[in-house]
Amino acid sequence: MRCPYCSEHSDKVVDSRTATDGDAIRRRRQCRACGRRYTTYERLEPIALVVRKRTGVVQPFDRDKLARGIAQATAGRAVASDAVEEMADELAEWAARQGVEVTSDALGLAVLERLRPLDPVSYLRFASVYKQFDDLADFEAEVVELQKSSAPKSPERESS
Ligand SMILES: [Zn+2]
User: Fold this and answer.
1) Engineered SS bond to 130: which of 2, 19, 72, 108, CB 3.0-4.6 Å?
2) pLDDT digits (tens, 9 = 90+) for 26-82
3) Is the pTM of this model over 0.70?
4) What is the rounded distance in angstroms from the CA atom of residue 81 to the CA atom of residue 84?
5) Rounded Cα gap, residues 68 and 45, in angstroms
6) So where are the chain's domains?
7) Strand partners, 13
8) 70-102: string of b/e by CB count within 10 Å (b at 16+)?
């Protein structure tokens, strides 16, 4: 470690302890050249989370890219940009809990689960990209599913 006072590269550790937040080691060092003391911190490097696509390609998880994808799906809809950012944060936390790798399928589903109650149109837009609807029939099937699951469960409406 280079001394911040005299730039010498020779020091000795005079004290070593866990920092108050518990995830760092704080070391007091003394320069062997000028005798002055300074502090260094040692921390764990965060583990990089990756997304595995269907093709097998692995990419670093990118929270901002995810937020942009959600923002695209919600464009022009009554979904606040705050809600999109909040969702991206939630998803980033969710992804971090999955371990070091998450599949693009699982990530897409996690997005859909959150978009569905928020706005059905945004949900369908995202689903059409994520599920790669091949034709109108796929899209219609999804709409029917959406209507089924979001229909109010009152007795009068179930009579049809
Ligand atoms: Zn020094």
Assistant:
1) 108
2) 999 999 999 999 999 998 777 789 999 888 999 999 999 999 999 999 999 988 889
3) no
4) 5
5) 27
6) 11-43, 50-133
7) 29
8) bbebbeeeebeeeebeebbeebbebbeeeeeeb
CB atoms within 5 A of ion ligand 1 belong to: 3, 5-6, 8, 31, 33-34
Residue where the block lists tokens 């099937």: 141
| Ligand 1 centroid from CA 20, angstroms | 27
Cα 40 to middle of ligand 1, angstroms: 14
Structure tokens at 59: 């990419």
> What stretches of 23-135 show up as alpha helix (H) in DSSP?
63-74, 81-97, 104-118, 120-130
Angle at 150 between CA 144 and CA 154, to 5 degrees: 115
